[in-house]
Amino acid sequence: MALDEKHKRARMMMMWFGIISMGMMFAGLTSAYVVSKNRPDWLTDYQLPDVFIWSTVVIFISSITFHLTKKFTAEGDMKKANVAIVTTFILGVLFIVMQFIGFNEIVEAGYYFTGSASSITMSFVYLLVLAHVVHVVAGLIVLLVVIYNHFKKKYSKGNMLGLRLGVTFWHFVDGLWLYLFLFLYFFR
């Protein structure tokens, strides 16, 4: 079933409304972080685990492979598109695994999200990172739908709306992580 241009524009617009809403949520959370930074109990001596640096590289590469999926599909090179889209999924899962390794390293360093040993600083770090992980999981669900449709051969040069929507959302989630990582890394 081919969509007319009106329906394609409506679907793109709905995705952009969602992206803007998510961006506003994270802007609010990072603003709250900035305001809370003036508290006397704010931690400034914590170090983000190095695995967060590597997970940033992983998610950046996943954006490239998802973009290549779109490029190869538009060119009709389905073998390369297949490799690129599966690689994107694997990298997305690896990113989440690395985030939880990072959480574990934070706990091992003595920083907790809740309880008497927690701090407002670490609560914000956990909240920001976990909220992003939830969005990456949503991205993986979107990616699974795209993979399903891709292997059912529903995308072609003239019919790429679902793939374009998935790639755009994935790029947003990746860019969001880059923003959060740099924010948490440099703004203490």
What is the topological layout?
Layout: H1 5-36, H2 51-75, H3 78-108, H4 120-151, H5 161-186
Walk me through what this model shows.
The chain is an all-alpha fold. It is 78% helix and 0% strand. The chain is built from 5 helices and no strands. The chain has helices spanning 5-36, 51-75, 78-108, 120-151, 161-186. Helix 1 packs antiparallel against helix 4 (120-151). The mean pLDDT is 91.
Short recap of the structure:
The protein is an all-alpha fold. The chain has 5 helices and no strands.
Structural category = mainly alpha
Main beta sheet: strand number and arrangement?
none
Q: What sequence of helices (H) and strands (E) makes up the elements?
A: HHHHH
First-to-last CA distance: 51 Å
What is the beta-strand fraction? under 5%
Percent helix, as a range, is: over 70%
Which segments are poorly predicted (pLDDT under 50) over 5 or more consecutive residues? none
Shape: elongated
Rounded mean pLDDT is 91
Number of helices: 5
Number of strands: 0
- Provide the gyration radius in Å: 19 Å
> Assembly type of the shown chains?
single chain
Key descriptive features of the protein:
188 residues; mainly alpha; 78% helix
